[in-house]
Amino acid sequence: MPANIIVFMTDDHAQWALPCYGNSEINAANLDYLASTGVVMANAFTPTPVCSPARASFWTGLYPSQHGVHDYLAEHEADIGSHNWIARKPNLGQLLQASGYKTAMCGKWHCGRGEGPIEGFDFWYSAWRQTPKYHLPTAKYSDQGKVIEKTGFDTQIITDAALSFLRQPKEQAFFLFIGFSTTHGPWLRRAERLVSRYRGSSFKDIPAEKFYPFGIPGDSPKAPSDPKEVAAQYYASVGQIDEMVGRVLDELDALGQREDTLLIYTSDHGLNLGQHQVWGKGNATRPLNMLEESIRVPLIINYPSCTKKATKQEAVNHTDLFMTLLDYADALPDDAIYPGETYKPLLEGQNQAWRDVHIGEYGPVRMIRSKTHKLIVREPLGPNLFFDLEQDPRETTNLYNEKTSQDNIFKLSERLSAFFNRFEDAEYSGLRNPLPKHNHAHAWDNGSEKGN
């Protein structure tokens, strides 16, 4: 039988905020266990550093300029949230369901029509946001399309739903998606017993830096009055998630399904929690940014019967994860529209040739990143950026206009253009003007001529 699959996808959980990626103060025993007995992808990236399009890329295996979602969706607004923005493309749930899987979605969807249920899922329990506010003590959830109100931490409520799915009798392999938003701001009202552990911490993994020199602050979140309290709340958020991962692991053990279950832990995108004096992700600045903290995500893969402990250096993103999951399900598509590649051979210790760049986009902003350099192109007015990541890993010096950079810029520009010539649908491209309304911000319209 193909592998059972569980994907944990958190919200705004930056790669730097886990012990297995070098954080020295966060306590995450269950995620540490998965990392120490599984595969850690050291260079995992998001295709786009903002919620809805990143999730749409995971679900469809496509880039935003193929699926058409380019910014976060204000789902509480009827004209935006009333329809499923990715309905025209087969989602991962549909493809797995067609291959005989029993499928479940628990938690954050954020691709429109959040009350569900969405096609492709036998079990649906979503954190349905009828308000733009996160982390209210009482919130609405959708249980198979029936809206209910629950009080308590969303991690607990969503995990309860996930465990109820796991306990259902099944004669086939299953796919379970668990989407937590606990690490998303505002960073307050987390479990006090966890927050108190971090008050007084040095937070030395968040470097003190000058403000990002190539833009201005975005709409939100603003720099907090007490950054260390915010950091304590954020670190506690990771702890809350870690405890829920532990509950799922315990349930798999009790059901005798741990050895046959492929576990994935990742995030939609990264986050700056004061790095570069930026608070947020790609839309935390104007113009939009592609900072390392915004684009890097954790990616831990644990499948006891097939993988061994390893750290892999290949640059991968959500579209590759989409293909890898389908490969483990014996349902790998051969359609040429998919930009991702399966890395199942890498996970199982085989030699596999792999590309040497990562490509990202956010509306009219496009980026290509090699091991040594990063090129950011902002259409149509710029400013464009070029960084030497070996000499300037904190991205402080723009070399775009330097004569010595032009050869590298030309080569990377050619590769960036070739990628979108192949993997772009003109109807859904991020370079359309205007792009459809996703929210009130129209972030790509603000500050495109600012910065230097």
How would you describe this structure to a colleague?
The strands form 4 sheets. The protein has a 10-stranded mixed beta sheet, with helices on both faces. A 4-stranded antiparallel beta sheet has the order 15-16-17-18, with helices on one face. It is 26% helix and 20% strand. It has 12 helices and 18 strands. It has one domain: Alkaline Phosphatase, subunit A. With 452 residues, the protein is α/β, with parallel strands linked by helices. Helix 6 (154-166) runs parallel beside helix 8 and helix 7 packs across helix 8.
CATH class: Alpha Beta
Which of globular, elongated, flat, extended, rod-shaped describes the shape? globular
Measured on Cα atoms, how large is the radius of gyration? Answer: 21 Å
Instruction: Please report the distance between the alpha carbons of the first and last residues.
Output: 55 Å
What is the total tally of β strands? 18
Helix-strand makeup class: alpha/beta
Largest sheet: number of strands, sense, barrel closure: 10 strands, mixed
Total count of domains: 1
**SSE string:** EHEHHHHEEEEHEHEHEEEEHEEHHEEEEH
Percent strand equals 15-25%
- The CATH homologous superfamily name equals Alkaline Phosphatase, subunit A
Number of helices: 12
Helical content stands at 25-40%
List the helices and strands and how they pair.
Layout: E1 4-10, H1 29-36, E2 39-45, H2 51-60, H3 64-67, H4 78-81, H5 92-98, E3 102-107, E4 123-127, E5 138-143, E6 146-151, H6 154-166, E7 174-179, H7 192-198, E8 216-217, H8 227-255, E9 261-267, E10 272-273, E11 279-280, E12 285-286, H9 292-295, E13 299-302, E14 310-317, H10 318-328, H11 344-347, E15 358-362, E16 365-369, E17 373-378, E18 385-388, H12 406-422
Parallel strand pairs: 1-7, 1-9, 2-14, 3-4, 3-7
Antiparallel strand pairs: 2-13, 4-5, 5-6, 8-12, 9-13, 10-11, 15-16, 16-17, 17-18
Helix pairs in contact: 2-10, 6-8, 7-8
